[in-house]
Amino acid sequence: MSIFKDKTIIITGAAMGLGLAASKAVALKGANLSIVDYNAEALEKAKAEIQSLAPTAKIITIVADVSDEQAVKNYVDKTVEEFGGIDGFYNNAGIEGKQAPLVDYDINVFKKVIDINLMGVYYGLKYVIPVMQKQGGGKIVNVASVGGIRGVVNQMPYVASKHAVSGMTKNAAIEYGKDGIYTNAIAPGAILTPMVAEAFKQVNPADPKAAETTYAQRNPTRKLGKPEDVGNLVAFLLSDECQYVNGQTIAIDGGESNLY
Ligand code: NAD
């Protein structure tokens, strides 16, 4: 199946977790890929992994920290230089920060979470949208979270940044829908990636597996999501099969965000 034949997709935070899963999903469907991450070594490993699944996919790697505006401009410019345009953008890179009560939260960690999760997503929009405007359209998927829909205990800056992602998604949608640019966000619940494994370690350092089991029991489906589940949703939202969806934050969380 090659629904992304001759299409170019940028994916940030592509070295592992949700970014890697989405990279595999779109590469298997024929996309040219520009994969971006600040972990150079893991990014090269990810490229090899994707390439072994999709040997004919054209893939470039770009090492960039998404909280650095010049580095973001650079990954956009390099992608256009290499492939001539950008059809889809998965604006995914993000961090959780450290878990702590609001009054005790380390202000430097707070600022870092905002720099990456909020400003990093904004810079991506700022430099990708003009390319898509020139081409006459494109698809953007930002990554919010269940924490972009409701509060999460001890994760104040993460929740603030992810509510902001949902807000920026609405604004990009209403400002650039006229240009054929469709911007949506996804709000994953707990999906078992390295980031979430680290969160379970913080909740129960002695027994992270017990924290995982307890968390899963609270979910309506009694399980955690898989990165591939999210990769498939992202591939759909970035494809031509998805039309007239704009400015939405779509939960992929087993129904968790409906619980009190
Ligand atoms: P992860 O830690 O497993 O992977 C994140 C990737 O992003 C890593 O490769 C990391 O090197 C990269 N990255 C982080 N900061 C970066 C930066 N400043 N510049 C460039 N690359 C950077 O995390 P994940 O679970 O795959 O999360 C991906 C996104 O999904 C994040 O925005 C996260 O907040 C969001 N999310 C994840 C879950 C989940 O359950 N896993 C739930 C809700 C939202």
Account of the 3D structure:
This protein has 260 residues and is α/β, with parallel strands linked by helices. 48% of the residues lie in helices and 15% in strands. It is built from 8 helices and 7 strands. A 7-stranded parallel sheet has the order 3-2-1-4-5-6-7, sandwiched between helices. It is globular. The mean pLDDT is 97. The structure holds nicotinamide-adenine-dinucleotide. Nicotinamide-adenine-dinucleotide binds next to helix 1, helix 4 and helix 6.
Determine the CATH topology.
Rossmann fold
Helix content: 40-55%
* Model regions low in confidence, pLDDT < 50 over at least 5 residues: none
Tally of discrete structural domains: 1
- CATH homologous superfamily - what is it? NAD(P)-binding Rossmann-like Domain
Major beta sheet, specifics?
7 strands, parallel
Compact description:
This protein has helices at 17-28, 40-53, 69-83, 107-135, 156-176, 194-203, 208-218, 227-238; strands at 8-12, 32-37, 59-63, 88-91, 138-143, 181-188, 249-252. The chain is an alpha/beta fold. It binds nicotinamide-adenine-dinucleotide.
Topology:
Elements: E1 8-12, H1 17-28, E2 32-37, H2 40-53, E3 59-63, H3 69-83, E4 88-91, H4 107-135, E5 138-143, H5 156-176, E6 181-188, H6 194-203, H7 208-218, H8 227-238, E7 249-252
Parallel strand pairs: 1-2, 1-4, 2-3, 4-5, 5-6, 6-7
Helix pairs in contact: 1-2, 1-8, 3-4, 4-5, 6-7
The structure holds nicotinamide-adenine-dinucleotide.
